[in-house]
Every structure is written in C-alpha cells, then in structure tokens.
Amino acid sequence: MPKTDSNLNVSREATSLRLLVENRLRSAIGSGVFKPGQRLIERELCEQTGVGRTSIREALRQLEAEGLVTTIPHRGPIVSTITADEAAQLYDLRALLEGFAGRECAKRRDPAIIGRLRTQYERMSAVAGNDDRSELLAAKTEFYAALLEGCGNVFVERFLKMLLNRVTVLRMTSMTQPNRIGRSLLEIGTILDAIENGDEDGAERACVEHINNAAAIALEALRRGEP
C-alpha cells in the first residue's frame, strides 16, 4: 500500500471550526447583523467570534465564493450588495429551479422528506408570531433543505443552495413586511399539501407562486432603498 503524503491529512477539529465560523458569519449576514456594504474587519471578527485570523479568512473566502462577501481592492471584504435587477434575475432562476424541485418532491413522495417538511412547517407556524424572526428564518431554511434534498437532483440542490444563500437578506426583508408571514405560511402549506398528495403540477405551481410573491415584496423594498 503506497505511503500517504502527510500533507493531505485533514484535522477534523479544524474543519468543524471552519464550518462553524462560516455558518455564524452567514447567519449574521442573513439576519442583518452585518448590513450590505458593511466592511468585515478581520480583527473585529476575531474578537466577536473568539477564533483566529486563519479561520476568519477561510470562512470569508467561502462566503465570497457564495456571493455573500465581496473583496474590494485597498478596502478588504465587505458584505455584498445586490441591485434590483440582479435580485429579479436571481428570483426568476430560483422560481424555475424551485418549481422543478417541488414537482420532483411530489413525484418521489419520500416519507422521510415529507416528515421533515411537515415538522419545519409546524415549527414555522409555532414561531410566526415572535418579534424575533431568526427562528422563523431557521425553520424556513430547514424546510428548503428538505425540499432540495427531496427532489433527488444534486445539481438542482447545489444551485438552489447558492441562490438561497445569495438572497438570504432579501428573504428576511420580505418576511418583515406587514401580513406577509401569514400569506407565506399559507403558500408553504399549499406546497406541502401538494407534495404529500403527490400532486406534481400543484407542487410546481405553488412553489413558483410562493417565490413570485416573495420576489415582488423584496424587489419593492430594494427599489425603496431597503434594507
């Protein structure tokens, strides 16, 4: 058996730490703790997270690959901004892919996936009235994770994850609009019902309608200069 190059050894603890830092920073961007255009200063991030610069730099590189962070020459990394036109294009693509994912979920009707979807839908319903939207966003993120896994297409799952990461701030914006949460839950409930019933056309239609409604609110906020 050939000798393994020691340089290829990976520390599981280091990998786990990197992922934890990525998730914390990604969550902070998505929840608006770090605003679009805000500088991300390594020293301050080290103090806030309690980790070293290497972990921060690795996490920032990953978030830059996802489009959440942009590095500006002579200025450093900032939270990425997004124009209304760019957001509209992202939502159009998301509607296409998510419609497909909903259709495939309904076609496959995986009991484990349906159980996860139902659990997260009930979790969303339970926390919908809270002033703090972080739990709602977390439950919705898990709902989408189950939807993407349930479609059975790793490429659709991969691209949709990238799009969802990119529009996280806009998702939070749309959820804070008056009456949107109630309508959003109804729309998600329609998606879930269609998947549970194996209604492929209905699931695709409900997914596209949900994205289009969220897009209209988020784009209106963007054009008003929010968030």
UniProtKB/TrEMBL annotation:
Keywords: DNA-binding, Transcription, Transcription regulation. It comes from the Bacteria. It holds the Pfam family GntR. Residues 15-82 form the HTH gntR-type domain. GO terms for molecular function: DNA binding; DNA-binding transcription factor activity. CDD domains: WHTH_GntR. Transmembrane segments: none annotated. InterPro entries: GntR_C (IPR011711), TF_FadR/GntR_C (IPR008920), Tscrpt_reg_HTH_GntR (IPR000524), WH-like_DNA-bd_sf (IPR036388), WH_DNA-bd_sf (IPR036390). PANTHER family: GLUCONATE OPERON TRANSCRIPTIONAL REPRESSOR (PTHR43537:SF24), TRANSCRIPTIONAL REGULATOR, GNTR FAMILY (PTHR43537). This is GntR family transcriptional regulator. It comes from Rhodopseudomonas palustris.
